Amino acid sequence: MSIDLGLRGAAAGLALLIASVGLRDLRDSTVARLGAAVAISAAASAICSAPNFPRPWQWWGLILLALAAGGGVLFWLWARAAFDDDFVLRRWHGALWVVLAGTEVLIAGGAIDWPMPGQVLDRAVQVASLGLTLLAVVQVLVTWRADMVEGRRRQRLVILIGASVYTAIVTLLNFFPPLSPSGASIASVAKAFGLCVLMVLYGWMLLRAVGTPEGPRRLPAADILGDISAGASDAEDKPVVDQPLLRRLQHLMIVDRAYRREGLTIGVLSAELDVPEYRLRQLINEGLGHRNFNAFLNRYRIEEAKAALADPEQMEVPVLTIAMDTGFQSIGPFNRAFKAATDLTPTEFRRLAMAKNASMAPKAHAISGIGKPD
């Protein structure tokens, strides 16, 4: 019991320290805010799942239970935000947390008096939490190869192995608790030890991330429309890792337009350039400032799309055709990527570009002498 309570106290204290440090240094980061919420949920779980926690539940205990019960949702959202640069929090994410946390509070608070419905709902919440953890693991695996940030790739291994294994074991122990009192005590100590280890690893990762920017800054529409014909060559102004490799990569992307190819991956591109994948990742991340491979490709695609949308001769070309010609497979991802890069929809961008071209045309005619008396 002493070991159990000591480990739980250490895990809860470390979790609260991690949450406070993360909010202090990265309070404008969605990842940090969600990470702090996960840490607070872990602290609440360490406290309210202790073997000597008072029963029946008091009002303050129900608050801790709500924070702990929503941990699965928070962990899934944190994994999405940490490893998907395009992730955006939605209102239904909060509604999902309310449903899971509220169900556990209703069961523990005695609002559901019948044993069978209460037990079924409790098991449903645990299965949902396990399912959300598996979704977080899927997120880690699906975007593994496209991640250009080497430190973040290492974090994925910790998340994949540590958190998923811990959650699976805890869920199984909740479904099939040990029969003997000694077995229950050993299981409780094991869960407390696992949570403490996870908090140590999580704290190490979060502190390493302090000061790391979340991603590239979105350009305002005025900057973009200020130079419609600008291509992808401005990437050369960024710091590079390997200048010869950068020139070969830029030739492949700008001249050969490799970004138009369907199914282009970091492995295919590195094989074509005859360089190891880690060197190409380093160049794309540290030299060109992209955190994932899709963002790197979309930059060139969006630049070509901007030029096409601003071209008066292509004014009648549908937006979908331009999107497909530049390498996008459907209109939805193109609209989202274009909006993220320019703060404008493709249609709005084309309208502003055409208006600018129309306003510049009379000036050009005036300079050439058109309309002047002989």
Q: SSE layout and pairings?
A:
Blueprint lengths: L1 H24 L4 H19 L10 H11 L1 H13 L7 H18 L6 H28 L7 H26 L5 H29 L11 H6 L16 H13 L10 H8 L3 H11 L5 H17 L9 H7 L5 H12 L3 H23 L6
Helix pairs in contact: 1-2, 1-8, 2-3, 2-4, 2-8, 3-5, 4-5, 4-6, 5-6, 6-7, 7-8, 13-15
What share of residues is helical?
over 70%
Output the radius of gyration: 27 Å
What is the number of beta strands? 0
- What can be said about the biggest beta sheet? none
Strand content: under 5%
Helix and strand string, N-terminal first? HHHHHHHHHHHHHHHH
Mean pLDDT, nearest integer?
77
Structural class: mainly alpha
Shape field: elongated
State the separation between the terminal residues, measured CA to CA: 103 Å
How many helices? The count is 16
Description:
By secondary structure, the chain is an all-alpha fold. Helices cover 71% and strands 0% of the residues. The chain contains 16 helices and no strands. The protein is elongated and about 75 Å long. The termini are far apart. Residues 210-238 and 364-374 have low confidence and may be disordered.
Looking at this protein, list some descriptive labels.
single chain; mainly alpha; disordered C terminus; 374 residues
Summarize the structure.
The chain is mainly α.
